[in-house]
Amino acid sequence: MDTYDNQDEPRFALLLRQREETIRAELRALDNLPNTVNSMVGHEVLDFKDVAVEETMARLDRANAHRLEAELLQVVSAQRRIAEHHYGKCLDCGEAIDLRRLQALPSSAYCAACQTRHEHEKFPRHQAL
Length: 129
Ligand SMILES: [Zn+2]
Prior knowledge:
The chain is mostly helical. The protein is built from five helices and no strands. Zinc ion binds at residues 90, 92-93, 95, 110-111, 113-114.
């Protein structure tokens, strides 16, 4: 298994900064969307079907924003781990995280095994969609 080396710091710092900028841009875009209720003001006809569609969209936007904020938090703490030179190690078991995993998801805080366990704990009655 290839593991992260401190020599990789600049490369991962760059990946994380790019990801941070993308997330912040997406969050700004969501912020700029007109608020559902406000966007209805001024409309002469309120079609209930349109309202329902807009409410669904607003809910999706909120879920999206929530997901992005959670990821931003992970990216920021990964950047801190790089600055403190203990990036690339699982926060749970302390084992080195597979380099391929870090490349795919630079904000990974856990090795694959611990991540699986966390997801299982978070969704104990996981429902197949
Ligand atoms: Zn682990």
